[in-house]
Amino acid sequence: MAGGGVEDEGEADAGWIEGAAILLSVVCVVLVTAFNDWSKEKQFRGLQSRIEQEQKFQVVRGSQVIQLPVADIVVGDIAQVKYGRYEIVKCVFVCECECVCTLEFI
Fold first, then answer.
1. Which residues does residue 64 pair with via DSSP β-bridges, in sequence order?
2. In 3D, which of 53, 46, 83 has the Cα closest to residue 68?
């Protein structure tokens, strides 16, 4: 029994090491996860900005048909919407048959 008491004292003195090891492991996992999330977010934002710059839209501006990046479209541009293209816009729809109607989404 006397020997068992000595081991308990030794374990009690070194018990903080277990807690510190667990805390260090949790901190490492949190930091690695945060870094991975940050790098993926940075990569996603770079791809998103590249897509926005490369995406062109055909508009009629000043009686001329030109292609513009989507970010450069302004009020008053007449956009040529092609079949198969889905855009969420607030607009006035002008079709070739000269009918005009207001739409919330097309």
1. 61
2. 53
pTM over 0.70: no
| pLDDT, tens only, 38-50 | 999 999 999 888 8
Shared-domain flag, residues 20 and 40: yes
95-103's contacts with Cβ under 8 Å and 24+ in sequence apart are none
Alpha helices in the chain (DSSP H): 2-54
Structural domain boundaries, residue 81: 55-103
Same domain as 76, residue 45: no
HSE-CB of 7 using CA atoms within 13 angstroms: 4
